[in-house]
Amino acid sequence: MSATAVFELTDNQRHHHQNTNRVSTQGQIIGGVSLLPNQHEAITTATTQSERLHTVRSRTANTIDSSSDEIHDQSSRLPLRRLIPAYLCLSIIYFTSSLDINSVALALPNIASDLGAGSSITWAGTAYLMGQAAFQPLYGRLSDIFGRKPLLMLSVGFLVFGDILCANAHNPAWLYACRAISGIGGGGISSIIAIIVSDLVSLKDRGKYQGMLNASIGAGSAVGPFMAASLIQKTKIAGAASWRWIFYIPPILACVSAVAAMAFLPLTSVTGSWRAKARQIDWMGLAASLVALLCILIPLNLGGTSWPWRSPEVISLMIVGGFAVAAFTIIEKRYARIPLIPLRLFTNRATAILLVQSAFYNIVWQVDMYFLPAYFQDVRGYNPLQASALMLPILLFSSVSGVLSGPAMTIFGRQVRRLTFESFMLSIRMRLIENSYDYVYHPGIALWLLGAGLKMLFRQNTSVGVYLGALLVEGWGIGCVFQPGLVALQAHCPPKDRAVATSTRNLFRMLGSVIGMTIATALQTAITQSALPDNVPNTVLSQVAKGVSQSAWDQDILDAKFKGFQAVFALEVPLMALCLLGCFGIPSAPLVGDHDNEQSSTR
């Protein structure tokens, strides 16, 4: 509050006090001394002025003390002619990140053969995921402190730098370390772009623009495997191993889109020196979060493969991770000036449910992306290109429904407002479901649950039509959940928590991916081994664990593998059922636009 406003408020209070406590002409007794009216008025005025000066000083001191901890509003509403090129830049960057993620998995056997990595090649994906998840708590708060554009450019730089180093890797350790660098960049891109969209458009229109990002994600998910499959069919390209070009292409696209973003993305900058901004960072919370995430993610990824689950390495790291989580919670609650993750996100019922839901349905998404292609190849015998083609329904329809989900939220929201004026009964009914994302988000989870259940129909001789139908339903539900879920989370958060809520949601999604893959892999291995006949030799069992079999046991091994995949698909159903149940605990939160905010502020 300005000094002028404080003085005006104090003067009004003084006049009110004088009018309501007007002394009579008989005088008044104060402190045992009889005062005439003019003497009493002089004392009252002097006292009020002293109180006024004290108020100004205290408020000024509070402003000075808290200015360094202030979260700046970085909203930047653009006209349509400037919003479109800015949004195209964001879409291309998002497409590049999605392309990078989804193109590498198909080429891992070729990379392992060329670098002599063997079974450790899975660390390429693990390292990326760890880099993506470990720094997730930072992106939202650092973008509040330093600004959106610097963090976006830094994330793109990490992706470009990591991919170029991966393309020139000469040993597995080099590749894994550089994939972790790429993961840091990819995780930053996904969080910062979602935050930037929330700065550029109002909550009312945010679903429409967030939904359009699904097209970029889906395009990258669909193009990536086909690009990798076409490249690895050749031995060398321009004198280099063909798989290396999988890492050269994303940096080219990223650099072009980053230059365009610098020109067409006019974002509100955060003023202040870098030293002052650095003092705002929660360094203790940062250290505790990194220790916690790394000590939890490493044993989850290596447990059951490189290390036995009961090994000292796994147990000790998990214990340290648990203590680090407790330390992080205490730091954020008691000591952090600007917490990396405000604990109020978990005391708010709506945001807590939405965050847990994001972890659950991301488990299902990650399981689908990994185990569906494996099922098509290991059980049905399709080649990698055919398996990629069978994944198109879930990828393309999730993109289409994601694009349509935003306008659907806007249209249904307008219909709700019109219907509330028609009758009293409709007004009561619509008030219970007034938040327009409900019409997309809740049916989306229901469709995703239905699609997950339809995968239980998959057999060893299932027709392609059944695959297409089940994955179409599931894909449509996925598109109605991902971006509308983010809009719902932001609708339940105050503006100052919008960035950290977005990055926290991504953290929960990453943790869901790691935990889900760990559980699903362990479940598949256990069911597959238990389904094998008792008379199978140990040599064959070891070959099955490595993905190799002998013709004499092919059918038995195929049956066992199918049961393992079926158990993994069955795991998805209760997770999505819990997500659907959680929808009933999310209270209403209307999606308002800038005009709505202006009207509400003037009431």
UniProtKB/TrEMBL annotation:
Domain Major facilitator superfamily (MFS) profile: residue ranges: 86-591
Location(s) in or outside the cell: Membrane
One Pfam family here: MFS_1
Transmembrane keyword on record: yes
Record keywords: Membrane, Transmembrane, Transmembrane helix
Membrane topology reported for the UniProt record: Multi-pass membrane protein
Keyword Transmembrane helix among record annotations: yes
Transmembrane segments: 151-170, 176-201, 245-271, 283-302, 314-331, 352-372, 392-412, 439-458, 464-486, 507-527, 573-593
Superkingdom of origin: Eukaryota
Main location class: membrane
GO molecular function: transmembrane transporter activity
Example of a GO cellular component annotation carried by this entry: plasma membrane
Descriptive protein name: Major facilitator superfamily (MFS) profile domain-containing protein
